[in-house]
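Q: What does the predicted 3D structure of 50S ribosomal protein L27 look like?
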Amino acid sequence: MYETIQFIHSYWAYLVLLILLIAAFNAIIGYAADREYGAMNFRIALFTLIVSHIQLLIGIALYFTSPYFKAWSTEGVGGVMGDSVLRLYNVEHPLMMIIAVTLITIGYSKHKKKLTSRPKFKILAIFYGFALVVVLTRIPWNAWF
């Protein structure tokens, strides 16, 4: 079961990263170029929200089925925090990804309340941009290549 969830989580991550890149740059360009916010921009923002939440759910399932999770009981908190690999997979990656999904959710929710295009793009650019930075800092790159 763990291998299947890990496979899905790993490949869904490519989709999440791609759509988050597209959404962040779309918002930045829309804000900088003072474009009109339209249906396609809304769909990009919504799709980013959906795929990131699906990834979070897959990640939660993976976390609790992972052999790394068992280290909490075998190694204890000190052992997990003392080992950089265990700390990455048990603390840093999950926490930062939850923060990234939270930023995406807040950005999506706040942008819907704005009435004109420029503030919509600005909110999305800020929150989706920060979420992208957070994701890029805590991806276990050695596992990706």
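A (community wiki): The structure tokens above were generated from the sequence. The chain has one domain: 2-144. Helices lie at 2-32, 39-65, 71-74, 76-82, 84-113, 117-138, 141-144.
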